[in-house]
Amino acid sequence: MDKPKLAVSKNSAAALEKAEVRNEGLQGASERRDYPRSVRNWLILGLVLIFVQVVVGGITRLTGSGLSITKWEIVTGSLPPLNETDWLSEFDLYKATPQYEKMNEGMSLGDFKFIYFWEYFHRLWARMMGFAFIIPLAYFMFKGYIDRALGKRLGLVFFAAALTASFGWIMVASGLIERPLVNAYKLSMHLGIAFITFGILLWTTFWTANVKLPALPSPKVRKLVYWTAGVLVVQILLGGMMSGMKAALFYPTWPDLNGETIPAVLFNGANWTFENFVDYDKHPFMAALVQLLHRTTGYLVAGLIAVLAVVGFRENLLGRRWSTALWITLALMIVQVLLGIGTLVLSKGGIIPVSWGVLHQAGALLLLTAVLYDVWLVQSCRSTDLQD
Ligand code: HEM
Predict the structure, then answer these.
(1) pTM to 2 decimals?
(2) Which residues span the domain enclosing 17?
(3) Which residue ranges have their beta carbon within 6 Å of ligand 1?
(4) I want to staple 285 with a disulfide (CB 3.0 to 4.6 A). Which of 5, 276, 322, 367 is the partner?
(5) Is residue 106 located within the same domain as residue 178?
(6) Which ligand 1 atom sits closest to the C-alpha of 236?
């Protein structure tokens, strides 16, 4: 790996040393203190639990299971139907929904039990996460392991998680009237807030680790990292719209969109109406728009990461930890784009392939993890001493 030119030519060893001292000072000045390993392991466990929850959420959506439970009973809903009579009464409730009437009429009780399972499991996992959060938290507080700074951050995680669950129900409720599917915008919000919850917990986990880097990143690298993170967040929200609108089914071809580079439907000014944005499933307009935006933003994320890798490796001031992070980000980006294309071209006959869709969703979470880690590394040494 090339030794960074700017470090050698413009910044003497003394400047580097000074920067290191400043970096140490920055770490020391923060209110953070060392937390016991058990606290950090608990935070990592929380991340794994959220990751699983997002994957189960993806399976729930792609198997068309999300509207099978028509009530939101936080305590009594912990138990599934335990006998045939209970099952039949749950099934009767589902039979009264527009989804059953318009899409699943004649469904067998066995098939209903299958879709019920995924939605039930998704909700059960959410409850379990609540306990996995609160019980150790109470213990750690009792032991005095949680100081104010960490407590504030955990409060934010808890708030975001409660918001995700509330949006989950708002989303489900939107699919129980008129439309046989949940509202795409609400689905995107539910998914987006779930990703934000994961992001806050991830950031908190990084924060509890006292990362010390050998030097400072150039402003160019920092800008690239922040832009990548920002565009990635937009891309994830657009992804939620893609899945909510089942947009893959309208244009399941690549690299073109059913033979067009930009679908003609988007050039017709008469299609840019409020109704088309609200009633997105009555016209191909929104599917075309969202798909074009998701693809384009996907390429933009890919391009930003590629440039970040080139610049980042060239100015490899941050040492091995940084280059490993860049390699992982680059690899995850390539896999994510391939998974997106695979999901798209395999979406045929009104069905989006469950495994590809779920892997693409999980890939987004892993890519977000990698990019946030890059941001964290860059943030850990904010000083602008070493500029080109
Ligand atoms: C950096 C790149 C990308 C990221 C971070 C990303 C992220 C996402 C996310 C978060 C979703 C929602 C998943 C869900 O709700 O289950 C999604 C859906 C989707 N994405 Fe991407 N995506 C990327 C690139 C692409 C590309 C390049 C394509 C195709 C050319 C693509 C095609 C799709 C399709 C077809 C869906 C809908 C899948 C479904 O209905 O379940 N994505 N994407």
Answers:
(1) 0.88
(2) 1-32+213-388
(3) 58, 62, 191, 232, 235-236, 239-240, 242-243, 246, 248, 254, 294-295, 298, 301-302, 333, 336-337, 340-341, 343-344, 352, 357, 360-361, 364, 367
(4) 276
(5) yes
(6) 10
